Amino acid sequence: MFEKDLLDFCKNYMSIIYMFEPVRKRVIKFSIIQLSVLISFILLLVIFVQSLNWIIIYIDLFLFQVWITSMFFINMYYKKYIWNEYQIKFESKEWYNFKYLLLKKFLFHKKILNKPNKNKSKNIQSLDFCIERFEKYLEKRNKKKLLTVISSSSGFFLALFVALWTSFNNWVFQKHSFNLGQALAYLAVVFVILVFIVLLSVLVRYYFILFSFGEQRIINLIEMLYGIKFSLNNSYYLDPIDNENLNKLIAQIIKDYDLKAKL
Fold it and tell me: Which residues cross the membrane (predicted)?
């Protein structure tokens, strides 16, 4: 089915991790090092400290460290690499133009679209069909996910969380006669947990850019299909790439896809 081919191509051949091997190697090395550090220190804390509070504080500091180091060793690296190799800025107009043209070349290669400047009406029908299928697929997938329900009712859940958290704090302070030091320690732990949650959410959103997970991948694909559809009647919308290295990269990516498909 062409839907599976398209999703597979977007997932495995249009992500930064796949397109640029040096970036992929660096991400793998970085992940192995960080995972090893996390496991080692948690084991040391469990063996020698045996305190849940210290483990939470360490994980919080670890996430902060991952956030900072990933900015330098991954984020800055792949942006610099793309510029040095292809003279385009990441997430610039030229970058998105490159990704749109890569997908467009793949659609022609798989004969989902016919030759340029011929059978425009059939090409538009093909794109409309693809868009409709993916929108329905996304709708069905979202209905089955609990996270979608939670995110659509975020205001309600936030209000409920604040009410429950306030009640819990009132109960804690009523049941226990804390002195000033204990109260400050309790508030410090609460603060650390909140920072942990914020940092975790920031990291998750950051790595969405690199890996383009799940629904976001489908949403991006639908947007690109709309853009390609518009370009069929408006040739100025997607300018041809004059960059020889980028054209070679597009040809190589499609060639790699064909080689893997034959295996």
Answer: 27-49, 55-78, 146-165, 185-208
Give the closest residue to 29 by CA, choosing from 62, 89, 70, 61. 70
pTM of the model: 0.66
Q: What integer pLDDT is reported at residue 3 of this predicted model?
A: 76
198 contacts 5 by C-beta, under 8 angstroms: no
Give 24's Cβ-side CA count (13 Å radius): 10
Q: How far apart are CA 55 and CA 47, in angstroms?
A: 11
pLDDT at 194: 64
Mean pLDDT, the chain, integer: 76
SS3 for the chain, per residue? CHHHHHHHHHHHHCCHHHHCHHHHHHHHHHHHHHHHHHHHHHHHHHHHHCCHHHHHHHHHHHHHHHHHHHHHHHHHHHHHHHHHHHCCCCCCHHHHHHHHHHHHHHHHHCCCCCCCCCCHHHHHHHHHHHHHHHHHHHHHHHHCCHHHHHHHCHHHHHHHHHHHHHHHHHHHHHHCCCCHHHHHHHHHHHHHHHHHHHHHHHHHHHHHHHHCCHHHHHHHHHHHHHHHHHHHHCCCCCCCCCCHHHHHHHHHHHHHHHHHHHC
Distance CA 91, CA 71 (A): 16
Q: Is residue 262 packed enough to be buried (19+ CB in 10 Å), middle (13-18) or exposed (0-12)?
A: exposed
